[in-house]
## 1
Amino acid sequence: MSRGKSQQHPVAARRKALGWSQDDLSARAGVPRSSVSAIEAGRLTPSVTAALAVAQALECSVEELFGAGEKRAADVAWAWEPQFDSNRYWEAEVGGRKWLYPVETLPGSAWAHDGICREKVLHEHSDWDASRTLVLAGCDPAAGLLTAEYAAESGFRLLAFTRGGGAALDLLKQGVVHVAALHRSTVEQPDRNAETVLGKLGGGYRLLRSADWQEGIVLPAADHTRSITSCARQVRHWAMREPGSAARECLDDLLGRPHASKRIMLSHQAVVEAVRGGWAEAGVCVRLCAEDAGLRFLPVRNESLDLCFPAALERDPRIQALIRLLRSRAHRRLIDELPGYDASHTGEMIAI
């Protein structure tokens, strides 16, 4: 049950009675000051470990501070609905609220789940601080590299959920992710990413360049088709991305019309697997996926992959860590070595 605006949180009341600042409590309990602030404001329900640490520092019981039935308050919710009654989940704080994320297979992720939900009861296993997790939605097949580098350099955790650009922006609009990746800008239309964000979300956002890359047609290794025009005319069975994705937009432009399909691929890698598995003749993806799978690739256009986040989060330590990483010489060198990637503008930022 949430508290009224005039009712002080027991943690704040006890801390003030002892004459401590939030920094004092943070140091004595060993939890971040941002977490202390969020707990006292009622925006964050602490993990079992954090609750015990705060209670011990304040020389109170957990029940006195958080209540016997408030382990999971009403402000803890699923970022999106889980598919099953029993689900493993991760936790992260976005917009001052703790969200639960059903576990998915993420690119390069080795993060253990934070807990499991059985019959609508949450059983927490991890004491990971939700305010130290950055949540990103996008379709970069190299997101696994970013995840590993980010953790090593910052000490924060990155959850990079695979979503097309349109779906990623929807999640950003809903306030359940910190960052959404999109790649509609091309050499011919360099402002498409900014225009898309402005049209869908409005102003008050930043675009941080992750990379420029080549998108094109992936074909079986033995296919000798030499031109894009020939592919558009001859291929009957395409591996289709979902509507709203830049790859789908690229294919529709190639074919000269929207193309319907009952089979939808939700990532560049899924397109490659469909072609490699033989049930699709061709598809649109980035060069990296095609070459790593040993398939042929016909470049169609050069695109800019930008990371979009609210301007209000620019000073958030998690976002600052991401900016520092993208601007580092080591990361830019690594990106430049990926097939079809170009780090010439990586780390550049524009305001919307």
Note: The two ends are 38 Å apart (CA to CA).
## 2
Amino acid sequence: MRLGLIGLGRIGAFHAATLQGLPVVESLVVTDPVAAATAAVVERLGVEAASSPHALLASGIDGVVIAAATPAHPELILAALDAGVPVFCEKPVTADPADSVEVLRRAEQSGIAVQIGYPRRFDTAFVAVRDAVREGDLGWIHTVRSTTMDPAPPPDGYVRASGGIFRDCSVHDFDAVRFVTGQDVVEVYATGSNQGAAIFAEVGDVDTAATVLTLASGALAVVSNTRYNARGYDVRMEVHGSADSVGAGLEDRWPIRSTEPGVTFPAGTPHSFFMDRFAAAFRAELAAFTDLVAGRISSPCTVADAVEASWIAEAATRSLNEHRPVTLDEVRLQEVSS
């Protein structure tokens, strides 16, 4: 299989090595607007280079992975669809979910396979939680708790361009809640605070957030996020039902210190970075894309899935700013009509 990769920043360079290591990938063609980034990956991995995304899409590839900056996502997805090339694109589909609606329409009309990058869908523990819910092991679900806590804030430049904590961080929790429960979110209430760097308040963001999601069944999901978790990178999910409870991320590398007498759990070294925590999931995600390209599976994370997570992030952002619950229907209607 011959694949292309557009974008060779932090995650793109990481994906290049992962793709190169997949047995089914016989050749890889890469490109980046920064020539030095392309040259570095070519030298390190011995892959082919293309002069531009257009040249890459015309180079006889079977599928393309898009890891470029967010503003380029819609244009590159549509270019791949026009070229008839199956697409994997990192989230989000677009910076504004209202703009994603057009990409969704074009993708569905094209019939070309598209997969959006949400690696928790490929984490072994998260998949096991989903399976337990699907099989009815937990009875009816009443509470979900999802956590993403970063060890330290991202660079100021990233904060200024990210769109806020709900759109760049919490959105992974929002997608994971939908993935494991199989339910849509109908209402959102979000709050947040700033006790750290001034940059967050300057751009109208928060460094710590809590969001309550009401699911279609009436179950409640509580999402907790912060940029300041000095003990390590903390990603967990708990699902509690009428018959049982399960949790993902409760491992020896969980970055927490127990104060219970005689308790040594957790005893491992905490994760410090998301690419460390989800290395196996990223590999499984891209392996799934090769199966998608080969026609062996349907998309494990569709454009529609990604757009729905973005709507939840939009509702959370509005809830934070307006200090009230916001329904998903309200956000969809107002954003699309504006």
Note: Residues 178 and 184 are 6 Å apart (CA to CA).
## 3
Amino acid sequence: MRSVRARAALGATLVVAVALVAAGLAVLLVLRSNLTDRAGLEAEVAAREVAGQLALDVPYARLDLGDEETHPVQVTDERGRVVAVSDDLEAITGTGTARVTPGPTASTGPGTHDDDDDDDDKHDDTDDDKRDDDPGRGEVSSDEPEFSNGTATVDGDRADYRFAAVEATTSAGVTLTVHAGAPLAAEQEAVGSVRGAMLAGLPALLLVVAAVTWLVTRRALRPVEGIRRELAAITASQDLGRRVPEPGSRDEIARLARTTNETLSALETSVDRQRRFVADASHELRSPIASLRTQLEVGAAHPELLDLPGAVADTVRLQALAADLLLLARLDAGERPGRAAVDLGALVREEVSQRAGDRIPVEVSVAEGGAVEVSGSRGQLARVIGNLLDNAERHAERSVAVTVRAEGRDVCLEVADDGTGVPPPERERIFERFVRLDDARTRDDGGAGLGLALARDIASRHGGTLTVDTSPRGGAAFTLRLPGRS
């Protein structure tokens, strides 16, 4: 089942079905229990009426046993012998004895005794003594009666009954048990009616739940279908300028649409940036390659005219550009820098020492007493320092100064020159790839415009920042801020 609507409808229907079945069973159990208790109360009332007559020593033959069809009665003595039953009672179960024919004692009634055996004589003597010593009325037990379910056949009709057993003691001390029943037909009919109504209504209710869930889910997922269609169209047309429709609601689907559009915007920006990068890279590579080819062709035709230093310079520039492009590609691919400890002050001194022949000497100042170690890639950080020094050398007039200091938990490296500086509106643009503010400069003097972009990317990968401001010397001051090594 691949449809979300179908799964939602099925799931909701199953949950409601389980809940309704559980609730229905609970209702039936409570209803049956209440009706059974009511029948038991009726049986107890009927049993106590007969027990009251026995306590008054009413003879068995003259007992008023009530309506035998609604309340069949069976009276037994201490030995379980039947002494009285309702008229037309043909069979009974659930009362402890299935006999419905009174024994010989039924003809004598309460207060008389059976002389069939010696044990009876002993009991009779005892009973006589009790009557002589404590003559008076009997009593009905006040204990909670015992209840049981059974059947009774009255005048050929068999039915289920709830029986209550009540004990009564005659004035002669004879204990008799009265079993009176109340019909369970009303309970069975009510439970059956409720059960039938539930079984009849459950399928219809489940169909309604399934239909409503299907419709609600379909309406809720309609924007999702619109988003899917638009994404499919964007994929087919490769037009990243299109956007998916955003519903007016503030639910999860609206947030999904907004997030999708934000993703498309970021993807469009990334693709545009990549296209510009490829175009700019091709343009930058074309010049040194064309120059190198021209020199080689001239050298092949006229060896005496070969500009060997120029060819070497073009080759070096081409090699540096290829290395920058490769590093940019690796950074864009998400390459993570190492976690080695790098002494930024020592790294600056090492880079400056390799520039003894630069046009302008570089002043280095490393703060003493502060930690200037950072975590990262030594090679990439050296590339940042080199690019900043190259930029300062190109624009400085008389001096370049490098300062390394600790500021709180961070390590700051500042490269300042006394050149023309960077105008405030252009201070972010210079970090874009292939951007050169001085359009009049030659490519040989100005580079390809990748140095500062590389430096900022490497700083960002190391958890730091690279910004530009005005130097106290009047030129530009580039500040590299990196987290100190803890």
Note: Residues 240-335 form a domain with the Helix Hairpins fold (CATH 1.10.287.130).
